[in-house]
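Quarterly update from the structural biology core.
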Amino acid sequence: MPELLSPAGNLESLKMAVLYGANAVYIGSKLFSMRAAPENFNINELREAVSFAHAHDVKVYLACNIIPTNEETEFFPEFIAEAQKTGIDAVIVADLGLLEMAKKYAPSLALHISTQAGVMNYAAANAFYNLGASRVILARETPISEILKIREKTPPELELEAFVHGAMCVSFSGRCLLSSYLVNRDANRGECAQPCRWGYYLMEEKREGQFLKIEDTDRGSFILNAKDLCMIEHLDKLRDAGVSSFKIEGRAKSAYYTAVITNAYRAALDALEQDITVPEWAVNEVYTVSHREYCTGFYLSREEAKQFYEDSGYIRAYDFIGVVNDYNAGIADVTQRNYFKINDQIEVIEPRKTPKKLFIKSMKNENGENIEIANKATERVFIETDLKLKPFSVLRRRIISDNIGK
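Predicted structure, tokenized:
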């Protein structure tokens, strides 16, 4: 059965990924990572993350997938040797120089080739295998028909990893300079400002200052705005094509996102193993996180991967409002993350379970005072409920009344 690989931008997200069903987690460090926005991990935090994951029989992969400068390259040998000591299971690289240095200075680590390397054919996959890679992360642009050919013409020991969910880049394998040109923020350093999501107008050179709409809308046109990827109902096709690891995008996203999407895809993989249909609740769950319009990317049809022209905003149906710390004698100890009040439509998501409705009978603040509204972020709230909630259960509040789902 394929591995479920979830993202983690910090220790809380990592714990969510582990508890909600991931077989492996990929994370970034303060250096050499393609995601600058998340908190990422220093060496001590990395050690703690590995210890927690391994205690639950979950692997940890460290992303070192930037294309480094000469100055950065000089720091890599010491960095990767130190990272190896934390017990990580693999390092993800895109640069050939880092690949060679990882082999030399961290020989116990498995070598995974990043999607940034743009592997779309068996020749490239075999070349990386011959250089010591145990896995290639396929370019998002690779259709399933091509994955089949790659699998047929590569050693069975070479693992194939593919993205199954999350944001997509309008440029090939993320090789984009638009952010660098426009706002001097380097996408190769995880600092992308996502100018592909901005609305654009045309201006004719002899009509300076006169903006011409590309589409007939008041907001211009979002001609570069990519849809989000969602393959939750098509995992069997990827498995049958030879993909051995299903990867969820989102190291820069919240712990709530990690928990919910990991939970949904865990249920889908469990259904796949039992040869039954993906549960409807799991399919609907992917619509409860902030997302753009979904598609199946380039896997099934290139028509599916067309841009979304109407706007670049996210669709958001729920607020993430809290995480359960403990439950005792009918009282849930919750760390609040967002505003909520008694009588709201509240749901609870527990690891490896379907979502449940939560009716709040009463709640108190840290001083033991009865309250009807929780509105101070990160404050602890004590909720009376008959549901015996487990630690790391997630609470959410519905903010859109329409039916959630496809």
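The chain has three domains: 3-171+226-305, 172-212, 318-398.
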